[in-house]
Amino acid sequence: MKNRFIASLLLGTALSFAAGSIASAGDKTVKIGALSDQSGLYSDLGGPGSTLATQMAIEDSGLAGKGWKIDVISGDHQNKPDIGTSIARQWFDVDKVDIIVDVPNSGVALAVNNVVKEKNGVYINSGAATSDLTNAQCSPNTVHWTYDTYMLAHTTGQALVKAGGTSWFFLTADYAFGAALERDTTAVVTANGGKVIGGVKHPLNTSDFSSFLLQAQSSGAKVIGLANAGGDTTNSIKQAAEFGITKGGQKLAALLLFLTDVKSIGLDIAQGLNFTETFYWDMNDQTRAFSERFAKRMKNGAPPTMVQAGVYAGLLHYFKALEALGENPHDGVKIVEKMKSIPTEDALFGKGEIQPNGRTIHTAYLFEVKKPSESKAPWDLYKLVGSVPGDQAFTPLDKSACALLKK
Amino acid sequence: MQALYAQLLVGLINGSFYALLSLGLAVIFGMLNIINFAHGALYMMGAFCAYFLLNLGGINYWWALLLAPIIVGIFGMILERTLLQWLTGLDHLYGLLLTFGIALIVQGLFQNYFGSSGLPYAIPDQLRGGMNLGFMFLPIYRGWVVVFSLIVCLATWFLIERTRLGAYLRAATENPTLVRAFGVNVPRMITLTYGLGVGLAALAGVLSAPINQVRPLMGADLIIVVFAVVVIGGMGSIMGSIITGFALGVIEGLTKYFYPEASNTVVFVLMVLVLLVKPTGLTGRAA
Hints:
The structure holds two protein chains of two kinds.
Chain A (H helix, E strand, L loop, with lengths): L1 H24 L3 E8 L10 H15 L7 E8 L4 H13 L5 E4 L3 H14 L2 E4 L16 E3 L4 H14 L4 E7 L2 H16 L3 E8 L7 H10 L3 E5 L3 H12 L8 E4 L4 H7 L1 H4 L3 E4 L7 H13 L8 H20 L6 H10 L2 E3 L3 E5 L5 E2 L2 E6 L12 E7 L1 H4 L14
Parallel strand pairs in A: 1-2, 1-3, 3-4, 4-5, 6-7, 6-8, 8-9
Antiparallel strand pairs in A: 10-14, 11-12, 12-13, 14-15
Chain B lengths: L1 H31 L6 H19 L3 H22 L9 H23 L15 E3 L4 E3 H23 L1 H11 L1 H6 L4 H23 L9 H16 L4 H21 L7 H12 L10
Antiparallel strand pairs in B: 1-2
Helix pairs in contact in B: 1-5, 1-8, 1-9, 1-10, 2-3, 2-4, 2-8, 2-9, 3-8, 5-6, 9-10, 9-11
């Protein structure tokens, strides 16, 4: 009899515990969609590496141990805005995805931005460059994590003008990204007393740049601004060396250069190039530790690019916001607001914050490509030459054209 | 005006690649009746072959020019023996689909292992530097590409149109049974011809390695243009494909100067125009 009483008492306690936990638990499921260029010219800087960064962020967040269930799916937008938006729509409508990450290629990124806003999801963009994501086309659902064209123009661009590069000729990738980068850099050049004397728009994914380079050469500009990315930039730089452009006294401005690009050009040709990034694997013990774990799981053993690092760090911050909310409200605006209210801090980008327009600001670093003799390991490619605090590198809020700021 | 000369010359350089590749396609189509969509992938394999020879075997560019076409050519001959030969007599579409599938598989494999940004391959020491031509700075390597590919193109044309071996080949295409009756091993000849066409693609790949990045998709980007070149020149015409290759390179170069945004569409606009006016291509014979 006594045993029975104790047993029922225990059962009752267990039941009330269970009931209590149901009442306070809420929905702890999250589905992440990693949307990237999985096979084209941007796939090395984002692509499968960004999916890996997503998985590592989930593991490192420790949320699985706290009762959260987090799934990842990945997709290939093939650098086509229509494909990107249809994947995004399917993810929200059919697969019930909560958040889309990465999305390099500004054209696709802007198109996906609209879908995420319409579906009230969360969008952490790391791969795309266009500053429009937090200006004219800003959205309450979007966080632009890693870098943008404004930052590139105000760091690399400004440094070159101040070093005497007063006349510019642009080689611009003919889509949203190239246009944004050229626009933002032109503003910096003219504001600092330089002028733009010409430019040429080339199709995305061009293999032969000799024709464009000859035009740049004959323009006599002191600086040839490369407003392109990935394979387009590496080909431009390689072929510029071939045509003796840098030997002739003209300087190349690699406005956007990634780790994988430098590796692909080779130090012989790339040495001495100045450029800006917000993350490099060999900055401190923490970045090295992360990069080592990352590289071990990459098929070609490559350390993370800043885009992949941004996916990781952005997601960790997203998880922080979810944890603070205690559940997943499946309400993009609410989650992004929470993300903005918490200062950012992680092992890869250090301290920073997300501004009301969705722009994450953190320190930007000026790098120079090492000489072959200075490089001690296969991926030992950069030399740090300076840094710009986040509030000076990124668009000041009073200059941002974002409608969210005018409330 | 000076800029224009420079653009013409640059166009000629690109034309060299178009000519070499479309020549290989024309040889394969003319002799085997196969539309070889794997051509771009084989071109890429040529470049990778040069890269491996240098980095794994320490074998320099000059040997790569000789060895890479042979190695990739042998790979091509294995493809022909094991896969393509079963398609003899079937509709063109089957060959196209099979080779397209091969191209996707080969590119996919390379991309899986080497990513998409490509590997560096340096210009050989003897061909570094450049000459000032007055109107432009011509990298010596690029000049070499034009001269060398022109020689290879003409030699191939001579081999097929002017030698006894070439006569056998052409006869075997017209009437394989009759040629076989004369004691010529026609299947072996066809295999060798495919090997030759593939070797030309690989040679173009080696030539292009120091200029472009050695990338898994380098052929996929190029092959579409090259097919347009072949269509414009006329399927199966050897001289036609050489001349059209160089000519389209120049036209594309001029477009890059006058209206750069259209530089990757101009070839296709021309293709449409040619097909409307002369469906067999500029030098093609009616089927």
